[in-house]
């Protein structure tokens, strides 16, 4: 089993654990804010399951129906997570509105905050694990799941602040007000997750700094060629697709041209994990005098 799969399975177990702890905190206090925080955690469990399914699908090898692989399945999961984050925020806003209309004093607020705080610590640690290791594994689903958990940490911190102020001032309406403010922050986070995931589904080019690495490798490793042009890139999950045309002298043999392609391909794969490379070799009269200059 891959590390990515282990992390995805771990997210499901962590999500269920945190959900149970937060519902205990709400049950003790009756706080609208703590209930909203627990409600947001139900989405954590659902999105963790969605990420697990997406990662399993994305790991499948290419087949006749999907010759480029199943990498984009992770982007669909990330989009789903973003949408569910937004839905959770809207549900929290609804509960905050109802609590605003009818504010009530809380039962055992300190005990509830301590229990909720334990869940927050677990979430914060696991979110850090998912984002750092997800980026290392180039898994959009894990990174999106980690970012989602960070919004839950922010939610919990805001909720705790609101409940503490309400305890000190006896302004129990602050319980609902803080829940509403945190929900707005969650809405913004959900929007960003959806936006980033849609860029992958739309075959957005790789980041500029990575593109510079690709250009430099082609320029330095394609000695013997004339130039490279029509460079196109896109990313899909853990795969990075790189395509370009390589112009070689007209009298060069197929064997020598192939050797250049092998050299460039090996260097690109060493520098960029998961690189999928397609090189179209052209004779010298196809030169465009633009693109990437090959250094001798």
TrEMBL record:
It comes from Seohaeicola zhoushanensis. Residues 11-202 form the Cation efflux protein transmembrane domain. One of its GO terms (cellular component) is plasma membrane. It comes from the Bacteria. NCBIfam families: CDF. GO terms for molecular function: cadmium ion transmembrane transporter activity; ferrous iron transmembrane transporter activity; zinc efflux antiporter activity. It is found in: Cell membrane. InterPro entries: Cation_efflux (IPR002524), Cation_efflux_CTD (IPR027470), Cation_efflux_CTD_sf (IPR036837), Cation_efflux_TM (IPR058533), Cation_efflux_TMD_sf (IPR027469), CDF_Transporter (IPR050291). One of its GO terms (biological process) is intracellular zinc ion homeostasis. Keywords: Cell membrane, Membrane, Transmembrane, Transmembrane helix, Transport. Pfam families: Cation_efflux, ZT_dimer. Residues 208-284 form the Cation efflux protein cytoplasmic domain. The chain crosses the membrane at residues 7-29, 41-59, 75-93, 113-132, 153-171. This is Protein p34. It is a multi-pass membrane protein. Belongs to the cation diffusion facilitator (CDF) transporter (TC 2.A.4) family.
């Amino acid at each position: 089993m891959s590390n990515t799969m282990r992390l995805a399975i771990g997210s499901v177990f962590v999500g269920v654990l945190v959900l149970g702890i937060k519902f205990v905190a709400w049950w003790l206090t009756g706080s609208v804010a703590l209930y909203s925080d627990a409600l947001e955690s139900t989405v954590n469990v659902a999105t963790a399951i969605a990420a697990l399914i997406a990662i399993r699908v994305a790991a499948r090898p290419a087949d006749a129906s999907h010759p480029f692989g199943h990498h984009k399945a992770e982007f669909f999961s990330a989009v789903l997570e973003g949408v569910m984050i937004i839905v959770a925020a809207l549900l929290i806003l609804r509960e905050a509105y109802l609590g605003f209309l009818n504010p009530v004093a809380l039962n055992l607020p300190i005990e509830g905050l301590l229990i909720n705080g334990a869940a927050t610590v677990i979430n914060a640690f696991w979110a850090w694990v998912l984002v750092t290791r997800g980026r290392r594994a180039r898994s959009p689903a894990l990174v999106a799941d980690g970012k989602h958990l960070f919004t839950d940490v922010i939610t919990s911190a805001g909720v705790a602040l609101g409940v503490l102020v309400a305890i000190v001032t006896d302004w129990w309406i602050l319980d609902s007000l803080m829940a509403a403010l945190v929900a707005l922050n969650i809405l913004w986070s959900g929007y960003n997750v959806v936006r980033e995931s849609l860029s992958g589904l739309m075959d957005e080019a790789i980041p500029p700094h990575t593109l510079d690495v690709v250009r430099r490798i082609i320029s330095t490793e394609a000695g013997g060629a004339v130039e490279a042009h029509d460079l196109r890139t896109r990313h899909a999950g853990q795969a990075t697709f790189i395509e370009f045309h390589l112009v070689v002298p007209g009298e060069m043999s197929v064997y020598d041209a192939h050797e250049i392609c092998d050299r460039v391909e090996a260097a690109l794969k060493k520098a960029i994990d998961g690189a999928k490379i397609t090189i179209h070799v052209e004779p010298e009269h196809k030169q465009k005098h633009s693109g990437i200059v090959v250094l001798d």
